[in-house]
Specification:
Length: about 110
């Protein structure tokens, strides 16, 4: 599954989530991890195309010491641009219309 991050650190920030439940990369079934990573690669290519980005940041956090605060496996894919820092994670939700427009750009890139 792929959803828009509701507190994006950059335009086009998506989350890739496995269908079967797991806590994080430490307990996810190997076949589910393989499916997630194939989707991460597909989405990295799509967000670069959709936003004319220079690259991507891919992040996965496991357990509190690793920065995990949401306890289901998910991987962040964030389009990146030379010289542009990630926005801070403030806890503020993005405008739904902006998220929908960004999702549409990604869908078009996948078509």
């Amino acid at each position: 599954l792929v959803i828009m991050d509701i507190m994006p650190r950059g335009d086009g920030h998506v989350l890739v989530i496995p269908k079967p439940p797991s806590r994080n990369i430490l307990d996810i079934a190997t076949e589910d991890l393989n499916a997630v990573m194939a989707t991460v690669q597909k989405m990295a290519r799509a967000v670069i195309k959709a936003f004319d980005a220079d690259g991507t940041t891919v992040q996965q956090f496991s357990e509190p010491a690793g920065g995990q605060v949401v306890f289901h496996t998910h991987v962040h894919v964030i389009p990146r641009f030379e010289g542009v820092a990630l926005r801070p994670h403030t806890g503020e939700m993005a405008d739904n219309d902006v998220l929908a427009a960004n999702a549409e750009k990604i869908r078009a890139a996948l078509a």
